[in-house]
Amino acid sequence: MKIRELMSYNATRILENATMRDAANLVSMTGASDLMVVSAENNFRGVLSEGDLIRAVMPNFAELMADGMSLRAAFGQFVENGKDMATQSIDAFVISGDKLVTYKPEDDVLKAAGTMVAKQIRRLPVVDSEGKLVGTISRSDVCKGILD
Description:
This protein is 41% helix and 17% strand. By secondary structure, it is of the alpha+beta class. It has a single domain (3-147), classed as Roll (CBS-domain), CATH 3.10.580.10.
């Protein structure tokens, strides 16, 4: 079975020059756990997950507690970090380059499923031979396609 038979063609996309606030709003509005980062020409650039957004603003609790800061103060730091980072570019938090795994529509589903299980990835980008994002394949797509 080929990826094109199971993939979603409606990937949640965000432009590569977006801000952290843009990304947080998009995650909230769509319920997407992963944003596919693209250029204005739809060239695939990388992935930004909701976990990446949270980790970017998360204070180091161990250090804060060692300094005697209360949990309430640590939460205040968390909120302040979010405010400070809201207008920053997403670029520093996008998974790209060698860390990125992509597949083509004509690749076998088994290969993508194996990668998802081995690397604990929920959703993989699917790109065409020119590097354009055409969709995604998720664990749920694979389960539905194989088990339905």
